[in-house]
Hints:
- This protein is 0% helix and 67% strand.
- By secondary structure, it is mainly beta.
- It has a domain at 18-140.
- It has a three-stranded antiparallel β-sheet, with no helix packed on it.
- The model has no long low-confidence stretch (mean pLDDT 86).
Amino acid sequence: MIRIMVEAVKESLILNRIVGSKNFNVTAQGDCIIPDIKPDILNSINMTGNVCIYKKEIMEGKIRLDGNVNIYLMYLADEVEDGRIRGFNGNIDFTEVLDFPGATPNMILDEKIMIKELECKVLNGRKVNLKAMLDITANLSMNEKEEIVKEINNVDDIQTQVVTLKMNSLVRAKFHKSKC
Length: 180
């Protein structure tokens, strides 16, 4: 019986594994008051907006997103002097708890949110109802620690085969609160 001692040098890797991806359609809606320094609204002309997420949370089987939609509304004013087109900024706050099977609190959430459609309904001369239809793509991933054999020492009389692998690695993820 021949006994050969080999020494394996191992290295630990942290792998980022994608757990799942899911699309959601969400509606954010709220009333806004036209500021007193602005003239009354007759009709909306155009709207643009952007979405800001200021808090996200992963729970067992669910994800929660807190944010707002910042909307700029151009409107036709009831005043005749100085032109009739005016504009103002409005906000719609939202909180959405969405089902995501397999989600656990130790996972990482990456979300992309697109505004599909914006609507404005004039309730009266000083108040409008703003509605934003949002398309949310949520990706969950988690870090896993794996060990690989980096090299083998003391292999003088043993045939070895070396395979080189190229791997992409997430070096650092920095999460910060956005300035909405």
